[in-house]
């Protein structure tokens, strides 16, 4: 992918660490870009899982399906879980826009634990939560050790340097102020909401369309498999709680949480980023 991906100036990339809100942002970006040519009631998100609407480009390349990526009409939207420093030069050296979504790593950990259980078919097949926590704390997790924060810091620093290139969003902020974030996203993507759209409540409709409440109950998201993630991850696995922040409180003791936060804050020193 690093050698072969040819970007187009209109390409948009969604980057995230797994379990940070990828599915949500795929829906938001797709719905924002396609809002003018479709009525919200008949929107493809009613019948397609967000992962079918926006493909993981890394999985596409890894499974020999890069031609699908080539064939996507412009403006293409693609997603990746790669850290910034591993992105192809054709992305980092271009002016293509990147949206990065970040989430409290403690909730990422909890979400990942449940996700892995679903993939493997039950709690008895993976570590207990305490063991899973310990592994995460020590940096033993997929997609790069969360404890060194290379993933988030790479995008964070680049978003400070080039805010027109990278929009850095926090999952918790979107939950708190979805309309404000939806407007910020549309503005960044180059298709801001018009006054008429705002007056007609289009922003609220897009937010509602992409909410977990709405998406989770759709037939398409109760079953089936997204093309790129393969047949071991059901569409349904991408939706769990999602409507409130801080599920870690039901899984970690105060001491576990503080230990985790201290480790994170240590790495963030001087960066301006905080949980
Ligand atoms: P929880 O397991 O904490 O509920 P990803 O999409 O990166 O795999 O992240 C999955 C997490 O995002 C899950 O978190 C899931 O429930 C949540 N999620 C999925 N769709 C969402 C949406 N539309 N709005 C808010 N959260 C959503």
How would you describe this structure in keywords?
Rossmann fold, single chain, 8% strand, binds adenosine-3'-5'-diphosphate, 44% helix, alpha/beta
Structure description:
With 275 residues, the protein is an alpha/beta fold. The chain has a domain at 12-105 and 145-240: P-loop containing nucleotide triphosphate hydrolases (Rossmann fold, 3-Layer(aba) Sandwich), CATH 3.40.50.300. Helix content is 44%, strand content 8%. The chain contains 14 helices and 5 strands. The chain has helices spanning 22-33, 50-53, 57-62, 66-71, 89-92, 105-120, 129-138, 150-161, 171-176, 178-188, 195-200, 202-209, 212-216, 254-268, and strands at 12-16, 55-56, 77-80, 97-102, 166-170. It has a 5-stranded parallel beta sheet, with helices on both faces. The longest helix is centred in the middle third of the chain and has 16 residues, at 105-120. The radius of gyration is 18 Å and the shape is globular. The two termini are 32 Å apart. The structure holds adenosine-3'-5'-diphosphate. Adenosine-3'-5'-diphosphate is lined by residues 16, 18-24, 27, 107, 111, 114, 210-212, 215, 238-242, 247. GO terms for molecular function: sulfotransferase activity. This is Sulfotransferase. Keywords: Transferase. It comes from Rhynchospora pubera. Belongs to the sulfotransferase 1 family.
């Amino acid at each position: 992918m690093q050698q072969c991906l040819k970007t187009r100036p209109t390409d948009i990339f969604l980057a995230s660490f797994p379990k940070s809100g990828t599915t949500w942002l795929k829906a938001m970006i797709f719905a924002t870009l396609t809002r003018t040519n479709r009525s919200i009631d008949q929107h493809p998100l009613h019948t397609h899982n967000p992962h079918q609407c926006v493909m993981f480009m890394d999985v596409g390349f890894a499974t020999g399906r890069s031609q699908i990526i080539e064939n996507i009409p412009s403006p293409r939207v693609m997603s990746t879980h790669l850290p910034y420093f591993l992105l192809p030069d054709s992305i980092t050296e271009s002016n293509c826009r990147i949206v990065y979504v970040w989430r409290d790593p403690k909730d990422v950990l909890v979400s990942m634990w449940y996700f892995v259980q679903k993939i493997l078919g039950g709690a008895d097949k993976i570590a207990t939560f305490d063991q899973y926590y310990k592994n995460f704390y020590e940096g033993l997790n997929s997609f790069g050790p969360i404890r060194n924060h290379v993933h988030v810091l790479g995008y964070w620093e680049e978003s400070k340097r080039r805010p027109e290139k990278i929009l850095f969003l926090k999952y918790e902020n979107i939950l708190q102020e979805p309309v404000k974030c939806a407007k910020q996203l549309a503005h960044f993507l180059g298709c801001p909401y018009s006054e008429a759209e705002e007056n007609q409540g289009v922003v609220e409709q897009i937010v509602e369309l992409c909410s977990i409440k709405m998406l989770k109950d759709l037939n398409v998201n109760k079953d089936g498999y997204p093309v790129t993630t393969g047949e071991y991850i059901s569409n349904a696995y991408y939706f769990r709680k999602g409507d409130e922040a801080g599920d870690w409180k039901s899984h970690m003791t105060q001491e576990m949480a503080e230990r985790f936060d201290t480790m994170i804050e240590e790495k963030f020193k001087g960066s301006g980023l905080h949980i």
